[in-house]
Amino acid sequence: MNEVAAGHPKESLFLCPRTEALMNVAKAVNSTLDLSELFELTLKESIRAIRDADGGALFLFEPRENHLICRSHVNFNEDVEQIRLKAGESFTGTCFSTRKPVLLRSLDEITAETQSMSETNLRLLDHSVALHPSKNSFRAMSVPLISATDQCIGVITLNGFDPEGTFSEEDLKLLQVISDQAATALEKARLHEELKSKNDLLEQILDFQQDLLLQMNLGSGLDAMLERLAVQIQKPLSLFTVYGESFETEASGNGKLLTEYLVRNGSRLIGKLLVYGDDGQALTETEQYFLQQSILYFALEINRAASIREVEQSFKKQLLDDLLSGMLTDDFIDRAQGLGLAVSGAFLPVAAETTELLNGNTIEGLVKKQDFMSFLQLEINRRFPGSLVIQNEQAFLLLLSVESGTAESSLNRQIRLIADEADQYIRHRRISTSANFAIGRPVEGMEKLPDSIEFAFKTLRLMKTTAFKGNVADRMHFGLERLLLHNSGKDIEAFLESTLGPLLEGGDNKNEELLKTLTTFMRHIQRPGAAAKELHIHPNTLQYRLKQIAKLLNVDFQNAEAVLNMQLACRLLEGR
């Protein structure tokens, strides 16, 4: 009657306790496909079936961690969930590695077996049984969980915390039968869980793909798409494109680079996706799948953005060509306004160049070039709203919209501030170059812009071909060079021949050395010491060479006209 009152079926009066226990376990473990519930039912029914069992734990082997991990427990506290057992560690680990049951009937036997546990695991075990008055397990037994494919997938361990009582061989056999039933149910539940997990993953993938398509349709851009992927896989990311774009999610680059994916358009490389994480962390198959799925969408968006950018750059280039050719039609004005240029008022063209950035053809070089162009656009928009930055061959044209009547000195100061900001930008990114800015003449009305733009680019060329030391030049510089540039090439060559002819004869290293000495001296004519320092020679050596030059050219360095001619000739040579 007690058994009936305790909730057992009436027919249990006609069954032996062993059979009754097995039936109860079978009903319990086959009543659910939820793994957590299955673990709990298995343990509770096992403890109910074996008279002197007071508690227990079910451990499963996790291949990724290569440890046995507690997935359910009865009459232990939560510390047991942190235990990580290696195969062969303690009696539970021994049961797993040997695939044989273990029966321990006394505290001494248990103590001896648990000595193989790590210090951390032993401390966690002691804490997990601290809720019992004795703080000890006086008997224990473990049986392996063997799957239908003959794989040992875990261990069931039962314990007795009451000093009175014992576990018998019959109890061990009963627990083994229960374990076999539980393993079968566990396999079925795992299969169901895997199927459910795959369905959930499929739903996530579909939602993820729809989100990326929505981002593309809304024109949110690569940065929003990258953020969506980072949220999905919970990893910092960076994306670089061959068009000079760079995007980063929060904390990107702070962790260890785990892997990189190439983004291709057919066989052509168009970008790189970098994935960061903690040291030693590996990407899961699911994370890799989401990353690979994203590559296609990134490639589509990179190409779409590139097409828009190419069209915009083409419009800018066509605008510049029309401007320089004087085609200032109503359509031209509309196109200029469409690109963001303020078409009324005054204008100031500035030519800019950074050789290393413009010559870089690698992804890194293109990123730097695009970043620098974006930097210029931001800086001029801040100081000169309604302006444009146009890439013109191997240089940039800053077409600045300025207020009519603004003093030229004030405009030049602002350009120098932009140049200083550019130098800081370059130093911050550790680029071994500097940016040069050549300022044209401020003009009223677009029809006067062509001459001023040409003036700016000529100034930029003179900054490179002369020994100019600064990074900003305006129309106050290179007056002599501009005057000479209006002469024909034949006239200039004739002047050079008549002035420096003997030094220009090729194939003579001595003449080359003397010509270099002369051009350097002419730049420092009032400071011969500075000339000697630049040439890395002693002042006496400089004087000796000058005497040789005077003799070879048949000139007198005390003759002002002869010195002026030599200065002009040397400047022309440096400006070639």
Automatic annotation (TrEMBL):
InterPro entries registered for this protein in UniProt: CdaR-like_regulators (IPR051448), CdaR_GGDEF (IPR041522), GAF (IPR003018), GAF-like_dom_sf (IPR029016), PucR_C-HTH_dom (IPR025736), PucR_C-HTH_sf (IPR042070)
Annotated coiled-coil segments of the chain: none
Domain GAF: 34-196
One Pfam match: HTH_30
Entry's family note: Belongs to the CdaR family.
Name of the protein this chain belongs to: Sugar diacid utilization regulator
